[in-house]
Amino acid sequence: MVKFKGRSSFRQYMPKKPIKRSFKIWASCDAKTGFLYQFEIYTGKDDSTENEGLGYNVVMRVCNNVPSNTLVAFDNFFTGCNLMEDLFDKNTYAVGTVRSNRKDLPDVLKNKKQPKAMKLAKHEFVSVTAEPITAIKWMDTKEVTVLSTAHQPRDVMMVKRTQKDGSRKEVLCPKAIASYTLSMGGVDLFDHFRSSYPISRKSRKYWMRLLFFIIASIINAYISYNDSHVATIHCHRDFRLRLARALIDNYTTRKGHAQQGIQFKNKKVVSLEFQKKYDY
Q: What is the mean pLDDT of the chain?
């Protein structure tokens, strides 16, 4: 979200977001490093969203150029059965949380009243497969439902969960949910880098705010730099300082010294007062 309170036809108002009036930007980032691969500025609803929906169209456009056999993770705003199938047809695996009111979901994922004998105990899960999609519901502190085309229904692993007393305990978790948790932080990591040293400035021109976001390519440069250098030695702040000094390259707009015989107004007043005080 790029903050902007001025006038623009594609500015969004989202009352539940920390930044309520802003430009919405769809982005795909690397899950481990936060490297920004591709982004798209949301300019409002158009006719292309009528058939499959906004979330479907956004993911298909943003993931259009990803390499084959890539795992893509997204949240429940985007996840749907049609999206998972079409990504799989393009040799792209996907995993994402899903809302219980989506179309074509199995009954076990829907929020229907079930007898107590059918309810899941804590850390139990149930799964249903209809190739190529696997639907999983896991009971953590609350129900977690995901769709995946990259995991088998019975694949599990041990994960650490924080208990009420603050201790960490290993519990059994479906591998699809654990993989989603590990893969979902790429965009958040990019936002963390962007908010650590913000360069945006107030402006009534909407394109200026978007330009400051595009200059966030500095973050991509820093991530790429760390691939060939020791990241613990070169911190983010030091990288930005050295980059700024290299771009400036001793350039200055400072004017030369004032010409001789010309005095500033404040100095002239002081000199006159000095003469009057000590005039003999």
A: 81
